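Form 12-C: Joint structure prediction
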Amino acid sequence: MAKNRTLPKIITAGAGFLLFLAIIVPRVIAADGEPSQMLPFHEKFLQFMQYIFTVPELFWLLVLVMAAMIVLPFYAAIRELLHPRDIQAQTVDMEYTKEFRYFERAFLEKLCPVIGDVTISDVRVVMLSKTEKIEVSGARRVMDPRTFETIVYVNGDIETGVGIVFEKELIVAGSAQLGHDTLLRAISVRGSLTLGRRASLSRWAGADGDITAGDECILGVQVVSGKTLLLGQGCLFKSLSGAPIQIAPSHSERPAIVPGGDIRSHAWYINRDGFSLPPGVTVEKDIIAKTNIVVGAGSRVRGSITASGTVGLEAGAVVEGSIFAESGVLTAQDCRIGGDIFSQHQILLGSGTIVGEPGSVRSVIGKDKLFLSGGVIIYGTAFSERDGEVIP
Amino acid sequence: MAMLLILLRAYMVFLIVVILIYILRHLIFSMNRLSGIQYTHYPDIMDSDLPSVTVMVPMHNEEKVARNILDLLSVIDYPQSLFEVIPINDHSTDGTVAILDQYAAKFPYIRPLHRSSGRRGKSAALNEALIRARGDIIILFDADYLPPQGIVRSLAVCFKNPVVGAVMGRVIPENAQTNLLTKLLALERSAGYQVDQQARQNMHLIPQFGGTVGGFRKDIVRELGGFSPDSLTEDTELTFRLLINGWQVLYNNRIECYEEVPEDWDVRGRQIRRWARGHCQVMFRYMGAMLRSAYLSPVTKFDGVLLLFIYLVPLLLMVGIADAVTLFFLDQVRLLDSMFIFLAVAMFNIFGNFAPFYQVGTASFLDGFTDRIRLLPFVLFNFLFNMLYTAHGSFDAIIDILFGRTGLWQKTERFRKS
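Section 2 - Result
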């Protein structure tokens, strides 16, 4: 049992302080003659200081205390210097590169060398970052509710029913079709992956083929599809990648979101609230403003937009370059953005908005929040540090 | 005599106000990093359309470190058709030339520039390399740096934003454990980047381009006339030239790269003296233009003034000490009778000593290196050492401006063993 050294230290310090007072106070009182005499504080203090300098032992005691107070902080520093606990340089990952399927690859790189023959069905024990059990099997169908407590490797396709729980990673050499209310830690699929309604993923999912997530799925930290990633209504996410990412059309039509508004004529104007580009015009260059920017319906910007405020695109507006906003980015329906979209706060992409084009990789990053409406298509990635959500 | 006394007193008041402003600045930056809104920038962006990039590595007698950086640059994750490396041999007399030629023969995208005539120095070398560079974005590394595989992509993607003129990453000492000096420099770097630079980024002030682990747009720098050949801190100069002309300088805390910090106090002293001299040169040249710039807000200009002024503060402090001693012997210590001065001195004593330590401690905490915080009291020695050499460098700059003298570029000695 470790000794508690704090209490003795406090007692020693307290005793030392009391001893100090015991030496000084009576002598000050004695020098003063009349302890009850009520002198003003500053006079009392001056008297006290004068006394200290006339009594050598007190003077040296004070010098000693002051010296100790100066030296004391160096005690830990000198100990650290002589017996360093901080012995490692700060780590920079020299091999880090941006990669869509980083988590999945890192896991498979650990698993593949140790898993052995996957054509034999059994439960085996392997050493990953710690000792793990792996249940290896061929293609399987699991329809009754069940909890898998080990890593599961399926050397073929897998189909599951409602409410199956995978507490560890699920690796599928074929395709996977998982039923409603499935709970998953992570899943890697060579073929295509279908997640039923309200499936919940806590970490990552990766598939070489299409990924389809039903309504109201919770999509963990990262979901990456080599082909199309189709999300149902009400899905929650942090990071998505697909070629493309596609949001299922809304079940019910909602009125179009028209940010900004109040575009009066076919003329440029700047007001206190921001800069508005009227409908139906084309701008050949970048737009940079330390304010809000609204691009009118059907207008086209052949460059990029950078704004200190919010950027709003009215219905059918096109930005061929990228959009960078310190505040939010809002698009109405059927907008087109050729480049990336980055906001320090929120992004809301209205229905039918398309980012990028087939064959390209673009990013939509809303640091605080990212809302994707029905019919949105993104060629590349979508990411939010806090919350991403599919909205009607 | 009366006028002299007024001047001496006025100087004390001025100095105390200046120091209080810097103290508040340290405290605000630390508070911002601990509890303010943090602005990340663009390294998370993945984009298939990347700009063409030229990596430049100025080298003067760098045989100890040249192979390390060229090995790492040969495995950088960036499309080869958009990537080239120009190691600049700047009047080397050791084995650097042979090393560069060896790598050039092996990797077609490594195209060394050998300089054996003309003015020596980083600015002149960069100007010559800018003419040869094919990339739209120039990324700089000093020869002792160890760039990770993904760093060029992370830096280059920031230029997707059309207002970004330069991008700066974070520097991390790889030899931090060598001795007390390197440990203290690791603390100093940590505070400088993890707190100071990132807080300035968060607060829309002026993050500084550091001339390494960073990049800039080639066309802009060429339009601005390249680097001043007599500049000793071309990085600070570029920062202010970009800002004055409406471009943004971006700092990104997540773009990290190892460097080698000096292991010898004498080498460190010369390095910081050069920095101070160059920084003050930039102050004399660009203070007026910065204050007149239409692109900068009043708050940014104020931060710019503090940033430009910072290397002059130790010299002012030393003059202040002499001033205080003079006032004491002239029996003018009654200055402290004034409540305002008393409060100012008290605040300085209470918070002034505390603010830089708070910043260093905050940075170590954010980096997760809590054991390192034990060395905090030793930072005092580093501050005193820096004050001496910085004051010397600032004094050099004043002499430069008064007598039209130009400084000679001095390379920082390398310590790498293998």
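Section 3 - Comments
Residues 25-72 of chain A form one domain. The longest strand of chain A covers residues 377-390.
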